[in-house]
Amino acid sequence: MGTNATAVAYYAVLNTGNGTSTPPFSTEEAPNAFPPADKAGFLHDTFNPFYRDQEGAVTENSQVTLRFSALHSTGLTNVTARAYIFDTASGNTTGPVDTAMSPDTGIVVGGTNYDVWKTTLTLPSSTSVYYYKFMFNNAQYNGFYSDDYLDDNDNVHKDGTGIASNFEPFNSFQITVYDPNFQTPVWLQNANVYHIMPDRFRNGDQTNDYCRTTPFTTFCPTFYGGGPMNTVIHYDTWNTQMCDPRNSSSSCYNNFTQFYNGDLAGVQSELDYIQSLGFDTIYMNPIFAARSYHRYDTDNYLHIDPALGGDAAFTSLITEMNRRGMQVILDGVFNHASSDGLYFDRYNRYGGTPPSIGACLSTQSMWRSGSTSSTTMPRARSVIMSAGSASIACQLLTTPIHRYKTSSTKPLEA
């Protein structure tokens, strides 16, 4: 998972070597596929209360009624709601859990008859993400129906209607299950939030810049094994026009590793300005140690990126914000991490000896299995190594790596 990915591809791990699986999907395939005309008649719509009686998040132990419809002429004999449950407290995903749906009263749409299938589910008693999809058959064919988003960033197709497929897809409809006792913090209820990507905001300390040569020399790192697509491009003069990595004729084609070297000192130096605009809360893109300007490819969750000023700069910023009565929300991304980081260490940046060694370097790595106990990284480990096998995960790193979609990210308060 490098800095140049434009979409997420998903891979099934057929044999992890330790008996684990990779929900919320499998490699189960329908032996006989429905004709296109039948597929076009399948429907579930999360935005339509007829098909799902609760559109958004629900409280623990809630009951949710789901419906699925198909052309009467298709002659479905069985419809099953298949679920996978992601427990946000443990980070574990269980399933599949299959629930047979019962025939409901049919409907007529535009003069065409549709059969309807129905089930009422009792959702989990703890905070979780409830993934679901449908599988069905008639006397001849088998199939699946699920959400039709293209990747994690496709908010246009997320939820609503789905699409039929011949095999069980990774994509799932989903319902977030939350604690009914949860209350939004008082400070957030009327907060005015200012969003900052630190690298693009302000450079307040040139000593932590990447690759500066004047008036002094600073560290110039290599990311993801180096090469032209991972060589740091830096802009010492603020507001210099960026080289367009999407332009095939540019000198930086496909190199998104470009830094303006903004940092936390720059954020702190502009608190007067931010407050003068009426803002009392700052939401920051990830600031943990990482391998890109956006820092969504985390290297180490326990330290602030040195190029942002490190832990000391964060402590200084929080001290000053607390003095002013301001709040900060951090974008914590715990469902994926960098292959060039502490936990995988694909390029042997950190080395070490078992168990304190990257999962790509040793079968005895503390990060190799999601079930291994760790006091230093209790939550992130299980989702970083979601495939359950470091050897397979490292082989897949030549292409985008499989990762779960979760809703477990929580903001941190100052």
Main β-sheet description: 7 strands, mixed
Number of helical runs? 7
Low-confidence stretches: 1-23, 370-393, 395-414
- What is the rounded distance between the termini? 30 Å
Question: From the helix content, strand content and strand pairing, which structural class follows?
Answer: alpha+beta
Label the overall shape. Answer: elongated
Classify the helix fraction into a percent range. 10-25%
Tell me what portion of residues adopts beta-strand conformation: 25-35%
Q: What is the average per-residue confidence, as pLDDT, rounded to a whole number?
A: 83
N-to-C order of helices and strands: HEEEEEEEEEEHEEEHHEEEHEEEHH
What's the β-strand tally? 19
Rg calc: 24 Å
Keywords:
414 residues, alpha+beta, three-stranded antiparallel beta sheet
Detailed description of the structure:
It is built from seven helices and 19 strands. It is of the alpha+beta class and 414 residues long. The longest helix is centred in the last third of the chain and has 15 residues, at 310-324. Residues 1-23, 370-393 and 395-414 have low confidence and may be disordered.
Write the layout of secondary structure elements.
Layout: H1 36-39, E1 58-59, E2 63-71, E3 78-87, E4 93-100, E5 102-109, E6 112-122, E7 128-137, E8 142-147, E9 162-165, E10 173-178, H2 186-189, E11 193-196, E12 233-234, E13 258-259, H3 264-269, H4 271-276, E14 281-284, E15 288-290, E16 298-304, H5 310-324, E17 327-330, E18 352-353, E19 356-357, H6 380-384, H7 390-396
Parallel strand pairs: 1-10, 11-14, 12-13, 14-17
Antiparallel strand pairs: 2-6, 3-4, 3-7, 5-6, 7-8, 7-10, 8-9, 15-16, 18-19
